[in-house]
Amino acid sequence: MDRKTNRVCRLGKVFWVIAGGLVSLIMAMPAVASCSVTGVPSSTITLPPNIGVPRNAAPGQVLWDSNWVQSTPGTMTCNSPTDAMQFGYGGAGRALVPGFNNVYTSGIPGIGLKAAVILAASPPGDIDSATVLQYPLATQTVGAGTFNQAGYARIQYIVTGPISTGTTNFGLSFGGILYGSPRGLQIVLVNAKTSTVTAQACSVQTAAPAVRMAQVAARELNSVGATAGHGSFTITLNCPIAVNAAITFTDVTDPTNRTSNPNLSTDSTASGVAYQILQGSQLVAYGPDAAEPGTENQIILGAIPGSSSKDLPFSVRYVRTGPLKSGSANAKATFTMSYQ
């Protein structure tokens, strides 16, 4: 319930009470005196008290899934062919998230809500194959008869955009659905009233590593494409939650550079030479300063366990790019972390 007091809901002459320790997601319904429910069916879904969200989680990613939760049994008997019921989300102010199919605002920026019910002996694999709840409420004729109410309910939290850190009282108030053949009423109860959402990123312990390269003789770079020298640096990440991380390097002198050779900075006096960064034996190509998944030349680092540190070792070498001119050779690059 969204209040500490208990609430009594009425359907015709049948009463049920939901204790204040639960947030009741009971659909709004008209008083239908000619309908009665025996053993009001309900599916109780427990919300996660804490959700750690990778900061760059992609829109559309399912952040949390209750999976299908079976309801308790029950039947509904209606006597009039004109008996009707409203179905979908109850409460007020729930809005569709633009660009998403049947995903509604949850009260947390960047997180949308999708819920569905189905009256069947077994649920489908895909939530969209069931009856996805919608807002505003729709009305449907129930008709006369006795209908089995057993089924399943499911809730998903879906990333819809940038996520803000904080604790939000979801105050969810939606309910169930009555439809077609077989017709049925599904009531969803959600355990726990709040979820703490934390937009997480790993902290970088070596934010600006400097690499000092030893001098090399021109004879060591005797042709274009020849490489020489060796330097190294390590980027260390501390990750509070498990994430899939990626990194993109950007050429500071020319951010549009997509090769593996950064341009020398304007304070350089040498020419005909560049630096190459390697991850193991693989050359690193430069990309844009962006964290979105799929960024050009983004390097996938894979899964990093939560509450752990990870060292990312890289090496650096000279590469000849043209006619050599001796002098100082300086280059600058930035790196952008992406947590997905």
Q: Concise description?
A:
Belongs to the fimbrial protein family. By secondary structure, the protein is an all-beta fold.
Overview of the molecule:
The protein has 340 residues and is mainly β. The protein has two domains: 36-198, Immunoglobulin-like (Sandwich), CATH 2.60.40.3310; 203-339, Fimbrial-type adhesion domain (Immunoglobulin-like, Sandwich). It contains no helices and 27 strands. The protein has strands spanning 7-11, 14-18, 22-25, 35-38, 42-46, 50-54, 62-65, 69-70, 75-78, 84-87, 104-105, 111-118, 131-132, 138-141, 145-148, 152-159, 166-169, 187-191, 194-200, 203-204, 227-239, 243-251, 271-279, 282-283, 299-304, 308-325, 333-339. Strands 7, 8, 11, 12, 13 and 16 form a six-stranded antiparallel sheet that branches. The chain has a five-stranded antiparallel sheet with strand order 20-21-26-23-24, with no helix packed on it. β1 (7-11) and β2 (14-18) form a beta hairpin. Mean pLDDT is 77; it is low at 1-33 and 179-184.
Can you give the mean pLDDT? 77
Helix content: under 10%
Rg from Cα: 29 Å
Strand content: 35-45%
Following the backbone from N to C, one meets helices and strands in this order, namely EEEEEEEEEEEEEEEEEEEEEEEEEEE
Per CATH, which architecture of the largest domain? Sandwich
CATH topology of the largest domain: Immunoglobulin-like
